Amino acid sequence: MDFVLGVILFAFGIGISIALHEFGHLGAAKMFGMKVRRYFIGFGPKLFSFRRGETEYGLKAVPAGGFCEIAGMTAMDELEPDEADRAMFRFPAWKRIVVMLGGVVMNILIGLVLIYGLALGSGLPQIDAPQTKLGALSCSSPEQRADGTLVPCAGAGPAQQAGLESGDVVKKVDGTDVETWRDLVNAVRDSSGTVPFVVERDGETLTIPVQVEQVQRQVTDPATGAQRTESVGSIGAANDAAGLLHFNALTAVPGSLEFTGEIAVLSWNALLDFPSRVPNLVESIFGGQRSDETPMSVVGASRLGGEFVERDMWQMFVMLLAQLNFFLALLNVLPLLPFDGGHIAVVIYEKIRDGVRRLRGKAAGAPVDYMKLMPVTLAIAVLLGGFMLLTVTADIVNPIRLF
């Protein structure tokens, strides 16, 4: 039940983010006096709508986005007689750019508010901190119940018995490099017997043999989604949670901005890595193991949101929603149509072109003919549609499983 609630809440969060993105365009357009014809959330058949003033507001059946229709977004648009003086393309370039950036700004503000809330609540993780730093050490529960809880245990676990300490940063397990906590967990789970751990402690590199204990755990079959009991390796070590930075209401402001900058860099790198992730995404649809780093759709993100709520990991739930908003902002500033950044690129091109023409004693040129850009726009739209279909399919048949 908690899982379903989490899925619904995260999907609702995505819907709110989309609605506010489009509201950013609407608010900026109305502020400058442009005519906004329609403001809708979703696509496809109309479920309902109402009119307030000159704008129609409504909801459509497919919750996969939204749109804000502004009269005269391009010079190719047909205009009603009362729209001629308020058409968007007739306004100064800077005002058109502000309107196009309205949605991006809203996504950034949503992400910042969520990050600020985390900074005041649970704290913010140190992104550059070692991910394989050991935290609390304990015994290894011999068995996991069907409901996911662990059978109580007592005494020192394998990590403590071997001499590992809280604060150690694990670099290798049985000769295999580990860079993330996920890498470390997988390496331990697949190990048995005495395994050498290479760790860094107070500037020294140590090699410590650890007797990995075999325990019973519930695992999910990636093909069927069914639960089964499996024998896996365990050493009784948790991830270091002390890497969180805590703030007060004042220091949380620069802290949130700095953290957002780090997230932006990671999101940009993830966007650049998209093409290299597609082959694994395709393989996962046909039964291959899916990497945690492959792109996911809103379906997969909502599913992860459900898992976080199910495990009472609300900070991860909020973090994922914030990252989604930052990613949407970054995606929308790409200088490609039909993204907002594509429209901004056209406006900037017209401005530069007309400036050059003035220097040469010529009149301003005609607005860009969007019909000439239509083949490129359609190609990008088809590519995006295919990619969305691919990620949704993968998230249904072989979703990313963090737990």
Q: Order of strands across the biggest sheet?
A: 6-5-7-8-9
**Helix segment tally:** 10
CATH superfamily of the domain at 133-241: PDZ domain
For this structure, what is the CATH class of the domain at 133-241? Mainly Beta
Average pLDDT number: 88
CATH topology of the domain at 133-241: Pdz3 Domain
* Number of strand segments: 11
| Beta-strand percent range | 15-25%
Q: What percent of the residues sit in helical stretches (DSSP H or I)?
A: 40-55%
Order of helices and strands: HEEHEEHEEHEEEEEHHHHHH
Evaluate the radius of gyration: 26 Å
What general outline do the C-alpha atoms trace? elongated
Structural class assignment: alpha+beta
Low-confidence stretches: none
Distance between the termini: 17 Å
CATH architecture of the domain at 133-241: Roll
Q: How would a crystallographer describe the biggest sheet?
A: 5 strands, antiparallel
InterPro entries: PDZ, PDZ_sf, Pept_M50_Zn, Peptidase_M50
Subcellular location: Membrane
Cofactor: Zn(2+)
Membrane topology: Multi-pass membrane protein
